[in-house]
Amino acid sequence: MRTTDYFKGNNTEKFAFNVLQKLKTPRTAICIDLDIPYSTYRNYFEGLQSFPPDRIADLVDACREHQEDQALILSFILEPLGRIAVVRPNGRISTSSIRKLGHLIDIFDGKAKEQIENAIEDKIVTKQEYERIHSCINKEIQTLTELDMTIKSKVVSG
Q1: Whether this model's pTM surpasses 0.70
Q2: Residue 25 resides in a domain
Q3: Where is the domain boundary, 23, 53, 81?
């Protein structure tokens, strides 16, 4: 089934009930952004008329203030493909993630460990902090790869 076909037939009502009626973005704001009369949007909203597939990108854009709305719309579109859309985290690292990272950080020493600990201290990783951490991790990977190759060269068959 083509994605555009997904908005026809029974899916018209599904889109209305599972998406349009759950949006937090005000309906009037959507109508203004889509440049459509409220009565037309109400027909989409009530499942009386199919929402035009070529306007989905416009609808996603109209919901720019509510990422959850955007994820809901995109998840509906991706459903026939067995995919979902999720809201990207805002850059904050959860406490549970930090605990998980703590075990991984322990494998590092020196500069790499210091860079990682400094970056996650405030639960936000900036692009610059990421670049420094990435560089340190790449150096560690290079060292581990060299160690692996050295050990591999010493393997005797038998």
Answers
A1: no
A2: yes
A3: 81
